[in-house]
Description:
By secondary structure, the chain is of the alpha+beta class. Helices cover 35% and strands 21% of the residues. The chain has one domain. The chain has helices at 2-20, 24-38, 121-130, 157-173, 179-183, and strands at 42-49, 69-78, 93-97, 109-111, 138-144, 147-152.
Amino acid sequence: MAYLIIGIILLLVIAPLFAILPSARQKEQMNMRREAMGMGIGVELTSIPDPVPRQDKYISGTGKRLEPILKVAAYRVSREKPQHWRLSPVIGWGLERGEDASPVLPDTWRWSQAKPDTLSAEMEEFLIRELATLPDDVMKIDEKNYIVSAYWLERSGPAGLASIVRFLNGCIEVPLHNLQDDLNPE
């Protein structure tokens, strides 16, 4: 009987330790984030408004409506600022997945804000061409203050990471706006 009591006490002490160990999915996410940071890509855990807020998904067990918020990892890379960046027009753009997709953009992508008029044709072509290569669990991409971000649910694993890294690195290589706009700001 004493051995049974000792065994139960040990289980009560050891069981919580197993509960705090990371799962296989959490280990994979940590490895992907570490790999991305090794390639010069910043990773930040954040939350964004859900672009497809299904109401049945955002109801608590007690029937209370919840805010349609997604917890995502933002993979970010900085674009090199032009020489006269203070004189250049500030361009911020954003795309997100949604039910009412744009006819010009692939899959279910749409502009989350009005498409900037001064966005370069090369950048537009790049976005139209490369959006289809992103994994389905990338919910939003945007650029603010020369930082390009991809908001990812991290479900598509290392293959998804590779396509996001390729997209982000390709995105910062494409001119954001026309060189003439940099030289002759209005």
